Predict the 3D structure of the following.
Amino acid sequence: MSITITLIIQGFALFLVAWLVMKLGWPSIIGAIEERQKRIADGLAAADRGQKDLDDAKAQALEIVREARTKAAQIVEQANRRGNEVVEEARGTAVAEGERLIAVARDEIATQTSRARGELRNEVAHLALAGASQLLQREIDPKAHAQLLEELATRIAATR
C-alpha cells in the first residue's frame, strides 16, 4: 500500500470523525458549556443578591441595635427619674411625719408643762396656807415669824 492512499484514507477518516463530532457531539458540548456558563452566572447573581441581602441584614441589625440602645437609655432615664421622684416623695412624707411628731411632742410638752405649773401652784398654795395657818396659830412675834418664813422658804426650795 502506498503512502498516498494511506494519507487519503486517514484524511477521509479525519474528515468523517470531524464531521460526526460537529454534527453529533459539538451541539451537546456547546449546550453543556452554555448550561455551565448559565449556572455559573446564576450562582454569581445569587451570590451578589446574597451579599446585598447580607449587607441589608447587617444594616437592619445595626438599626435595631441602635434603637434598642436608645430605648434602653430612655428606660434607664425614666427609671432614674422615677427613683428620684420616689425618693422625693418619701423625703416629703418623712418631713411631714417628722413635723407632725414634733407638733405632737410640743403639744405633749405644753400639756405636761401646764400640768406641772398647776401642780406647783397647788403645792405653793398649800404651803402658803400651811404657813399662814401656822402664823395665825402662834402669836405674832417677829422672831417666830422670821423662823416660820425661813421654814416655808426651805419647803418651797425643796419642792422645786
